[in-house]
Write a structure and sequence with these properties.
578 residues; alpha/beta; Rossmann fold; Dihydrodipicolinate Reductase, domain 2; 2 domains; 9-stranded mixed beta sheet; 6-stranded parallel beta sheet; 19 strands
Amino acid sequence: MATHSMIIPSSSSSSSSALAAAATSPFKETLPLFGRSLTFQRKSCFSQVRLRFFAEKHSQLESSNGCATNFASLQDSEDHLTEEHVTKGESTLSITVVGASGDLAKKKIFPALFALFYEGCLPQDFSVFGYARSKLTHEELRDMISSTLTCRIDQRENCADKMDQFLKRCFYHSGQYNSEEDFAELNTKLKEKEVGKLANRLYYLSIPPNIFVDVVRCASLRASSENGWTRVIVEKPFGRDSESSGELTRCLKQYLTEEQIFRIDHYLGKELVENLSVLRFSNLVFEPLWSRNYIRNVQLIFSEDFGTEGRGGYFDQYGIIRDIMQNHLLQILALFAMETPVSLDAEDIRSEKVKVLRSMKPLLLENVVVGQYKGHNKGGKTYPGYTDDPTVPNHSLTPTFAAAAMFINNARWDGVPFLMKAGKALHTRGAEIRVQFRHVPGNLYKKNFATNLDNATNELVIRVQPDEGIYLRINNKVPGLGMRLDRSDLNLLYRSRYPREIPDAYERLLLDAIEGERRLFIRSDELDAAWDLFTPALKELEEKKIIPELYPYGSRGPVGAHYLASKYNVRWGDLGEA
């Protein structure tokens, strides 16, 4: 697929006026960051999209290898473009959801696209195509996705009208994932919607990874935009280990450039994860403390209160380490631990994340505990075990729980354990980052905490989901005549402070992909570094056939996780909570 770098010529008066207008845009924000004021845009409405399209139309076009594109070939299909043309909607966006009949598309992608449309974040001229092997009509697709669309956003007026408008822009094309002819037919249908306009195309691959390359090959050869950009969003998993991930990347790059590939990890789109860098770099109270000098350990905890729920066949191929730790939790760790980037530019941020990953020691088997949930009776109800799932082999050793201790070999974090814990069928659902600070040297009040000095340490908790919030645990005197201390929370609960509903992570990531913002997507070298950390331990687990420790459905997980934490003089921070 061809991709173009767009540069607005400084000599263009219309370009200058557009940029001047952007400078006063209400969507520009100035943030005191890294010791200076940085101005950036929160891309959350159509004006940003239109400005980008305007910049692209006035650009000096370059091919993906940096060589000048044959401009005459573009002039055959377009007249000279001006800001007036852009304002009139002379560019169009086509979004194709490949695997449109699957659960992810129905439950997440189509609702996210509707939410963006409802808030005016999509261009004026856009269309959405579903592509899958199922034989459906346009109306059947619309009926299928209409039940998943909700007007959960604050602007609730004209909800039914908005749904109708959105559904009228949704179309369906049935075809095989490895058929160039079927994608050529899709291309014809896309062109009917794009006729006479600058055509930008976004493909979302909501399909199993074993058919990624077939779809990319067919779309690249037969359904790529001829005069605009083409981008592809790829869902995890990105391979099973370093070798398979590298092979997948090599195959994709036969047809795409790195700039066209958007590897999505939806956890990076969650509000509290995106807030990590703001919390750290724009608050003087935190940045000086963010090191081994004050932080004793960092815990990244993920838990689900349900099992595989019929997805056991898929899950059994990967397990909890590949499914959660190697991507979601490791990405959060990299954002948490990275050094201050040069700017908020996507490449600057991603480069700092890569530095963190390359500074880490590969995970050792001795620092891993694996578990698997078993059947359990609770409250008169029977909960099935993992191997009770009919799609799971009876003697499967795939872990549904894992705890791990990892370390970063750099000056900031040397010796600080980063503990990860992830599991299914646990007692609660949640995801959080816990930062436990060191003890106060020579604490005057240590006698008030008896022998357990851990009760005297401060703790910062960033709750990613549910009930998004940030709280700082401090020591406080209980009112009264005596000297009794208590641990209290300085609590920022998002639903109380910000009553407007938080957008779904897929909304943010889809909008960023449309606008070419790569900050929250995973670069290929970042992916390589992540797999290098986990592949040795994963191979050893499988070669040695390590038997996972069983734990009851609905419990806190295997006891071995607590022994692992105590090995580094750490107590899991979530033990004292329901």
